[in-house]
Every structure is written in C-alpha cells, then in structure tokens.
Specification:
The protein contains one helix and 19 strands. A hairpin with a 6-residue loop joins strand 13 (171-175) and strand 14 (182-188). It has 254 residues and is mostly beta strands. The strands form four sheets. Strands 1, 3, 5, 6, 9 and 10 form a six-stranded antiparallel sheet that branches. Strands 2, 4, 7, 8, 11 and 12 form a six-stranded mixed sheet that branches.
C-alpha cells in the first residue's frame, strides 16, 4: 500500500538536544525554509526543480552529507525523484532513503559557492499520472548526526472532484499529543465503507501500529510506551486508500 501523508509538520527542533548549525535558503526568494514544508503544485508530464542554498552559521568548518527521504515511497510509476548535492548529481533511486557523498562547508559559508558546487537541487519529473508526493531533504553533520536541518517538498496535484469527495466528513485526531504510554485516536470515516483501519508509520514510512476499525466512528486506544521516542504519522485508511494523515510525537523513555 502506498503511504500518502497529507497533513503533517516535521518538528525536528522539538528536541532540545539538536544544535542546528545549518540553515536552508530558497535560492530564488532567499527565504529561510529550514524545518518547513514547501508546497509545490504539480501536473502530469511536467518536470520540476527546486533549488536550496546551504548555510553554515557557525564559526567552524563542518563535514556534511545530504539524505533524501521518500515519505510516500514508492513513488508513482513513470515518475522520478533525483537530486544534486555535495558536488554530485544522483540518478533516480526507488529506495526510501538515499545518501549523498561527503562534502565540507567552511565557517559561515553559503553553498553553492561557484561552478561545480551545489546546495540542494531537487528534481521531480512527473509521469503520465499525477500523484502527490512528500520528499524530505536533510542536511546533517557527519561528526554529529543529531545536528541537522530539513526541508520537506510537498508535491501536490490539483485536487479533482473524486479526491475532494473521498474525505468529506472524515475526521482524525489523537490525544494526548505528545504521548508517552497510551494515545487515544478519535475518528469518523464520514461515509459508509469497509476494510477501515488506522495505521501508524515512522519517519521512513514503516508501519509500526495498525488497528482494524469495527465502526464508522469511535475512539481507539493505542499502547505506545514500547515505541522509540520520535515523530510518527497516523493515517485513516478506507478501502486501502489513505484519507487523512496526522502527526504525533511519542515522548517515551525507551
């Protein structure tokens, strides 16, 4: 099943232990897009490129890498995601995660800094069928992987009538959030369907919890104390189609 995340905010800076040495800047507007979602409207048979500059805001040089993460892997057949970073360009790769090579950024430097250098050039070539995709680009220190910055590109197709009707009346929420032992997920499917469930994913799209729904509305109780601290997503899935997705922070001591 294709995991489509439709509503989330990646709050990596929630964790106080993360000391951010990098800033990501939109190459066209110079806006700071660090730890934000950038929505890119897309259409079939069209190619898109977003360019970001990487800034080292510290007074020391840093060896770094870039990781590309497909939150909605696998991408639609006929579409390609690829990127350039750390002085190299990387071809399309269907893997959920792809790591760039290594590169260094000097103190207070902004990349690209001349021919043959890159910040991040993010490409998405849409095939014959337009499918919305969420792609994360993460820049992190090789010597301290908890020192990182991300930008999420939300490639979003124009919503048609069928897509709009699919989630009319549907609701999904969880409490408490953050949660440390139990979480209650309140849902309403909004229409009569079969094979309904709530699915919880980690940041890489791996299913960690799944509950079949016996009713069209109600509250489900999930035990989360056995999960690793972090950010997760939970989806309302109706007839194998993801209708709504929300974010939850699991704040366990595991």
């Amino acid at each position: 099943m294709k995991h489509i995340f439709t509503s989330f905010l990646l709050l990596f800076c929630f964790f106080a232990s993360y000391s951010q040495s990098f800033v990501l800047l939109d190459s066209f507007t110079n806006a700071n897009v660090s730890n934000t979602i950038v929505t890119v409207p897309i259409a079939a048979h069209t190619n898109y490129k977003q360019k970001f500059r990487i800034q080292n805001v510290t007074s020391v040089g840093i060896k770094y890498r870039v990781e590309r993460i497909l939150l909605t892997a696998p991408i639609c057949s006929g579409s390609d995601v690829y990127y350039c970073a750390t002085g190299l360009c990387f071809p399309p790769d269907p893997a959920t995660s792809h790591l760039s090579g290594f590169d260094s950024i000097y103190a207070n430097q902004i990349l690209p800094a001349g021919p043959g250098t890159y910040g991040i050039d993010a490409h998405f070539d849409v095939g014959a069928v337009c499918c919305s995709e969420d792609v994360v680009y993460k820049v992190y220190s090789v010597n301290n992987p908890t020192d990182f910055v991300i930008v999420t590109l939300r490639y979003q197709c124009a919503i048609g009538i069928n897509d709009t009707d699919a989630n009319v009346g549907a609701t999904l929420t969880a409490y408490p959030n953050p949660a440390d032992s139990w979480v209650f997920v309140k849902y309403d499917v909004g229409r009569k369907t079969e094979n309904n469930k709530i699915v919880m994913y980690d940041m890489l799209g791996k299913v960690v919890k799944e509950i079949a729904l016996m009713h069209n509305q109600g509250v489900e109780k999930l035990y989360v104390a056995d999960m690793v601290l972090g950010i997760y997503f939970y989806s309302l899935v109706l007839d194998e189609k993801v209708i709504l997705t929300q974010k939850i922070i699991i704040n366990t001591a595991k």
